[in-house]
């Protein structure tokens, strides 16, 4: 019988720039061979020092104008940080949806101030989430001896559907997509257009255990036998092929 | 420690119209109180007779024209079925993306011919996926005595991100969204814009166990303590508020 287990990694202290995230997680979990560790972008960004104090930011006229159009009434300096993290603005009326330098389309360019200590500090997405996942994976293999996969995840909204779900930004040691095109279904027909976004499904599964307020920034997923290598970039639909960008 | 278990329900025969899906699943699983059962739309549709033979369909001129614009070169009669299931066409160039009568935005209006026996038979989405979930839930409670939640799920594509993920179409016995707005994060700040799409995350998690070709049309998720009632419709973003419809 196919069976998976999801185990929350709890009890992490507030993560600070320079902290050894691999040790913080490895010492609070029993990682085993072929486990996948899904870790929240927030703690990765904190450990990498991807924090900005709004005190050091000056809002441009454009940032002030956009801020005034948004229902959340954000600090215009936060809007400035979002614009600095983005290469394209998709919507700036009521909500701010941009494309980040990585190619991710999300609200507020992934800039966030929840679960960040300090009134005026915000987190940015990791500069290179695949590199973050690879570094953390390397450290976990070193500390535990277990060859694990790592996914750096964040919660994104979606068009057409309400609510946020956890998705994969960075991937190391496992595939991001599984391409079943050309394989055969249970009745012998070739499957068409069936590329499974497994890294996103793993991230979403972990989101059930992480919640949003409980201090569970990492989740172990056990029972998969997924080998190969993938990248968070694999999941980004090329802008030229995107019908909704 | 927060821990969830996902258990595949295997060994179901090919499901036919009129089959007692509750009994087929209940007799092959050990459902316990508060479990959530995620079931693939495909077997729900089959048990409900939501099948159409293309022999009985005549393609309109519009269906023929749209079919010729699609990269998958579908049978124009299949396009006709998709149009009949839809209230709005969002894209009909290269791929066919429509809004179904339920409000779901997805490829091919949820009409599909994979895992369906017969060259010319396609499945439709359940007429009312919440009602399907409620019926199946009632039957499972009756047969097992366990108060379980049920999600009817299907795999959908997304804008901006590649690959398909399993999402919730019908929900019974658990909430579809969890609204955390106004609650406080780990550093004491009020969370904004944080409505978790838990039913979709549950569906995605189950997708990992279902795969697409293995005969695992249902998955038990154990270890949640989620109470309340929700609907697949809760997750549908109202068209008027949708920036990408």
Q: Brief description of this entry?
A:
2 copies of one chain form a homodimer. With 245 residues, the first copy, chain A, is of the alpha+beta class.
Describe the structure.
Two copies of one chain form a homodimer. In chain A, a hairpin with an 8-residue loop joins β8 (149-156) and β9 (165-172). Chain A has helices spanning 21-26, 41-47, 61-68, 76-85, 129-144, 198-210; strands at 3-9, 36-40, 51-53, 86-91, 97-100, 105-107, 121-123, 149-156, 165-172, 178-179, 195-196, 218-222. In chain A, α3 (61-68) packs across α4. Chain A has six helices and twelve strands. Chain A folds into two domains: 5-50 and 148-230, 60s Ribosomal Protein L30, Chain: A; 52-123, CofE-like domain (CofE-like fold), CATH 3.90.1660. At the A-B interface, β1, β9, β11 and α6 of A face β1, β9, β11 and α6 of B.
- Name the strands of the widest sheet of chain A in spatial order: 1-12-2-8-9
Q: Give the biggest sheet of chain A.
A: 5 strands, mixed
CATH class of the largest domain in chain A: Alpha Beta
Number of separate helices of chain A: 6
Question: How many independent structural domains of chain A?
Answer: 2
SSE string of chain A, helices as H and strands as E: EHEHEHHEEEEHEEEEHE
Number of strands of chain A: 12
| CATH architecture assignment name of the largest domain in chain A | 2-Layer Sandwich
Beginning-to-end CA distance, first to last residue of chain A? 41 Å
Overall geometry of chain A comes to: globular
Question: Rounded to an integer, what's the Rg of chain A over CA atoms?
Answer: 19 Å
Residues in helices of chain A, as a percent range? 10-25%
SSE-based structural type of chain A:
alpha+beta
